[in-house]
Specification:
Two copies of one chain form a homodimer. By secondary structure, chain A is α+β, with helices and mostly antiparallel strands. In chain A, 38% of the residues lie in helices and 23% in strands. A five-stranded antiparallel sheet of chain A has the order 1-2-9-4-7. A four-stranded antiparallel sheet of chain A has the order 3-8-5-6. Chain A has a three-stranded antiparallel sheet with strand order 10-12-11, with no helix packed on it. The structure holds a DNA duplex (30 and 30 nucleotides).
Chain lengths: 231, 231
DNA sequence: AGTCAACTTTGATAATTCTCAATGCAGACA
DNA sequence: TGTCTGCATTGAGAATTATCAAAGTTGACT
């Protein structure tokens, strides 16, 4: 893991970060100690239960937020793409509510939580940005509840895959660093079952996979198929 | 449904509402049109997809927030107790993301969303309160994801029942207005399956039910039992 | 008291999903 | 190039959960 001081002013991600609403001058005067961090795939950035000290902006790569149960099961609570914020569970939360693990090599900006908190008091734009992300996260979480509670395995997987590739509209084939186990832990299924469904989808030509890339020729078909295998 | 002007200053719920942090004077000067509303059980307060105009504070009673799927399934996204806020999906959200349906006769305070929004800009205490509820809701939603994704039926039900009675610490037996169908739609199970598990729990003396009241002699036992029927 | 409607319980059977075990596959590395 | 390790796939059987159908219960209303 490497770290250096970050130059927020010229950051390519600024437009998608929580500092998006600020002027160039305001960014210059943040007065925050922002670290620029690099971690390889499979790194745990922080553990569930750890005292929370930093928040991070995911600049590049993928991260999973995981909760573990005493019975040995793990549940991926959320998957993060570039531009997402992590580690900032709440205003006065002093412990991380999940573990953050990189799925790929990852670039992050690390901010001190105390400083970020203070900043959000001072700058309405930052507060709004955090607020908005929160709202987004809640909405996402509630959608997941519906997926997990009211849909069958194949429909869950199909919807998820469509959403995933939807997050990479530029590319023809989206990067796909998730293992079958990751998928299982995200969708509440066993790895084997995920594997079987994936194989089925591929057999039906609804899905192509190759070297960590995934492609869905026609999302509508995929959703239709998953919906029709069972009401 | 009856409505009259509300007297926030003397409201018994004020301490638990989003106006909790305000002084008596500030409450007097809210300048908000707060309506005092009463609705019977089984009323839909607003529908999923409706343009959002009001937020509500639940003063008394129980409410379920429901999302419906095209396939006919319904999923209860959240259950609200007294003191909870509803209808306030986000600052700039103009549509309700779920339907709100009363489980019991219910007392509500109705606030105009636009006014509440303006108020939260003006009064940091209100903003903080809303913020805090949000964080709470997100945390709750993520916990639900874990429940739905990583636990079996009996464990889900057990944890839920313990949480439910935990929300009524004063009483020996907690009010329990949920039908088996409600439980099923909350936990992602069929009504029949819920019924069977409930019967089992009662047979083992882990649970008593009588006239819309529920009692758990020893929550620890209940959780233990549900955990042990399967790893 | 009688009736109705809504909710609950129970049973039988089917569908879904999990678990365990074995095998296949591909990239990392010596 | 061989080997090794981690991941993916496949199969078979078991466990879990859903579905369908039929009674049973309860409470409200007449």
């Amino acid at each position: 893991m490497t770290a250096k001081h970050s130059d927020c002013v010229h950051c390519l991600m600024r437009g998608r970060s929580i500092f998006a609403g600020l002027s160039r001058e305001e960014v210059c005067e943040l007065g925050m100690d922002v670290q620029d961090i690099h971690v390889p795939a499979g790194t745990t950035i922080y553990h569930e239960g750890d005292p929370a000290q930093y928040a991070y902006t995911l600049r590049q790569g993928g991260i999973k937020l995981v909760k573990s149960l005493p019975n040995g099961h793990a549940q991926i609570v959320r998957l993060l793409h570039h531009g997402d914020l992590l580690g900032f569970e709440g205003l006065r939360t002093d412990r991380h509510r999940h573990s953050a693990i990189t799925l790929t090599g990852t670039d992050l900006c690390r901010l001190e939580l105390r400083a970020l908190d203070a900043l959000s008091q001072r700058l309405p734009a930052v507060r709004e940005a955090i607020f908005a992300r929160w709202q987004q996260a809640l909405q996402g979480a509630e959608d997941r509840i519906v997926e997990l509670g009211a849909k069958k395995a194949d429909a869950r997987l199909a919807t998820f895959l469509c959403q995933w590739v939807g997050a990479y509209p530029q590319q023809r084939a989206a990067p796909f660093p998730l293992t079958r186990q990751d998928l299982g832990e995200f969708l509440g299924l066993s790895t084997e079952h995920v594997s079987r469904i994936m194989a089925d989808l591929k057999r039906h030509g609804l899905l192509h996979e190759h070297k960590g890339k995934i492609e869905i020729p026609d999302p509508r078909n995929l959703l239709l198929y998953a919906g029709s295998t069972s009401a």
